[in-house]
Amino acid sequence: MTNRMRLLQHLPHKLRNDEGMTTPGMAIALLLTISLVLSTAQVYRIGSASAEVQDIADAAALAAQNEVAEFMIAARTCDALVLSMNLLGSALYGAGTVAACVPPAQSISISLLEMGKGVFSARDAFSQRATAGLNQLQRALPFLAAAKAATLASSQSGALGTSYMAIAVLVPTEGSEIPMPGNAESPCLEQKAEESHEALMDASSEAEKAAQNAYEAKLRAFNADCGAAPGFCLYERASRLAGLSDASNPKYESVDTWSFAVPLERAKSYYAERLRQEKAASSKLEDQINSALRSQFYQFALNELETAYVQESEDAFDASFPTLPANASEIRASELYKKNVFPCTQSEGVNTLHAWPGCPQAAGSSSYASLAQMEAEVWPICSTCQFNVSMMGNVAAATTSTATGFEHHLRLVSKACDDYKIARAELDPKKSEAKTLAEDLIGTIKRVMEGAKDCRINAEPPGSKGCVAFVIGSSSEALDQGLSSSFVQGNRTLGTRIAISAATLVEDPSGEGQSIITAILDSFDSKGSALGIVGLTLDAWSALLSSYASGQSAITNAIESLLGGIPLDSKSNLGSWAARKVKETFASIGLAPADLDALKPVLVNSGDVAKSDEGGFTTRLLSLKEVAFGLSGPSTDLFSSALSGIEGLLDQRLGALEKDFEIAQLDLGFAGTSIPFVIALPHAASDGIASLVENCLARVRSAWAETVETEVWQ
Fold this sequence. Notes:
About 60% of the residues lie in helices and about 10% in strands. It is α+β, with helices and mostly antiparallel strands and about 725 residues long.
């Protein structure tokens, strides 16, 4: 049975009509309906106004925790700057080492090393200022958070004359002191560079001179072998005179891919083929003699080439390249002069040497002798073939003294090989010395970069676990304002309401940290585009800063960009070698990227925040929540104790704060400008934060006392 039916049963009988509603009954129903509507509206209005205090508490907690988020962005950006300056300084020393290996770039090398030293100095200065500034700022964080929460709450005063007071407490209430990051290897690198840089440049210069001589000798040999094609050269002569195939007679297009082993193998193939093809042009005695002597020369050349060798590596060269005789004098100095390869006859105790077994006067001869024996014992010359040393010398001279002869170009190659060997004997020790000095420097650079892993700014400020906000709401106007009627009791106020909220920080990959770095770089760019090495350095720093989060490849790209501004072309190839070593060093470090993600505040249960810390405030807060959830009534002592702890904490931190707080000045020294790294503070920080916080604490304490003395809604 509904309440309405029960009401009708108790009405006088004359007002009852079981068949329908009477006019008085309808009037009563309307009055009841109006009363219920107005009462419900008032209840809704009361509920909305009462619940608003929790919304304000939530907003206050988020606002307070946002101050911690701003601090963390500053700390992480400082960390990224310190890390990038470690990388940049190391990169500049690496580039300076590379430039020292290239004589034309050695003036650049000096500038690069000075800039690297300047970057390390700027890093130390910035680290010192940044850690001092961050430590000072984190000591002020409890005030900034409290001021932010209080300002937000007071700005939300609205309907029914409601005013709000808030106090926010960071958890933990104490932050960890941020130590200044230091890299002990940097001074070692600076000292090593000062000690060995000049010696490296000297060794590289001497190596470059020897390398130039070696290159010129090799180029002469290359042109004599095949570089002059289609003009006269070994390649062209071997093809024309011996008809060698491409496999036995290769042609190289560049001296860089050619070696002295090429003409050595080409000559072996050439003389073997010429010996196989050799025959007299006619049956004339002169043609027969010349053909026989050419065969002897070809065989001699093959014997000489069989003992020849070429051994070449990047750091060493050794070769034994034969120089074939070109006249009678050189024949006497050769092995051909001493070899018993010519037929010898004896008549009446007198020996005679012949050009070849086919000589008519050599018929039946079975012994052989040498030109050296013939001249030493003064044998008579054969009346038929007229053989002597000069005839053998003429065979060699015929193809050596003219560009149409194979031996002419082979002799050029042999002479160039001797020059190349001498140049390499000077080059290789100096090159080895330069490499040793450079590797020592690069090894020290690697240790600096490994030390950069620990040269970081790590912050755990107050509020790193979260914050708790207390908000007091009070109303001075009657609840029935605007709804005054006979149906709602008037002149009643909402009284005092208290709400607690909490917030903590979560990662927000929004790129805000990167945006701050971009702004820093834009500040440099706004001063004007830098040229030369300074421009390359700023480009490299930009890459290390803004792209480092993308991984190791970004570091490699930055190094390649910096090294790309150094002219590495040199005959010794020391510059290219050093550049490769530097790139390998940077690629092997595997540094963790700077964490540039921003942090954003989110609402959480205040108990979760309290449990994350073991401080006095959080312990009292947990006890207070346990009492509240136990429905045993609020504990004035616990809450007052918690507020006393907050008040004592803030009293220790009071101090003058500027509206804009400068953490540090960033100055690379060579960029022509310095950039202040500033954090904008809330205006309340400079507009009476002490009195604001004290008023909030006093009001919260007073409101709590008033609340526990009045009826508490369950």
